[in-house]
Write a structure and sequence with these properties.
227 residues, alpha+beta, Beta Polymerase, domain 2, five-stranded mixed beta sheet, two-stranded antiparallel ribbon
């Protein structure tokens, strides 16, 4: 797949059959019902295709990297619904080489105002190349801990479960504190996470401490008070 190709066009739903199945006056039979709130689009397969293509380019570049974010959770077997983008952690000093390799494959590179990532776009999906996770620089040690996993048939380094949980918790703040998407990730990874290191690395973060306490109340983690 060329990285610049968009997803295939989808046929319009309904068509002529809609008018045949409507009310006698031509309005649909359900027209009197209140419309349901629109759900965010599920881009899972499109994001996976873009992830595989970008991962292949990064592997060919020879520079260390790791898949992070929701797609990393998916690679670890967590059934998350992918909606927004695909994220890769790279070293800051490799940013120029990596972006040039992607540009040569037709990926559009966008220079954002933030100084901790590079944004790109391919196949209709957003790509983030990140060199600072939750305010902490991406290091060679962090990337070296990433196991190689299949991502929808393409093998690539994926952020280790403990590091993934630390990054997700440190990203929480009073402005962004939605525990809902994080709960299934914590449940699914709980046997593979070093929770002692998570507590140590997130100490002093009120949101992280609140989430870890919630996991204790839900019996995802043992209670430290022994109750």
């Amino acid at each position: 797949m060329n990285l610049m190709e968009g997803p295939p066009a989808r046929p319009e739903a309904g068509g002529a059959a809609s008018s045949r199945n409507g009310s006698p006056h031509g309005a649909p039979a359900h027209a009197s019902r209140a419309p349901s709130p629109a759900l965010p689009p599920d881009h899972t397969q499109a994001i996976l295709e873009t992830t595989k293509e970008v991962g292949a380019v990064l592997k060919a570049s020879g520079r260390p990297f790791a898949l992070v974010g929701s797609v990393a959770a998916y690679a670890h077997g967590i059934p998350v619904r992918l909606q927004h983008d695909t994220d890769f952690a790279i070293l800051r000093e490799d940013a120029e080489v990596v972006t040039e390799a992607l540009r040569e494959r037709g990926v559009r590179i966008v220079d954002p105002p933030e100084d901790w990532l590079v944004k790109a776009r391919a196949g209709g999906e957003e790509i983030d190349l990140i060199f600072s996770l939750a305010g902490r620089p991406v290091t060679a040690e962090l990337l070296a801990r990433a196991p190689t996993l299949p991502v929808d048939s393409v093998h690539m380094p994926v952020l280790a479960p403990t590091d993934l949980m630390v990054c997700r918790l440190l990203a929480l703040s009073e402005h962004h504190c939605d525990f809902g998407p994080l709960l299934p990730v914590a449940r699914g990874l709980r046997e593979r996470v070093d929770w002692g290191r998570v507590r140590e690395d997130t100490a002093g973060s009120p949101m992280a401490e609140a989430f870890l306490y919630l996991l204790e109340l839900l019996d995802v983690l043992p209670r430290r008070d022994g109750a």
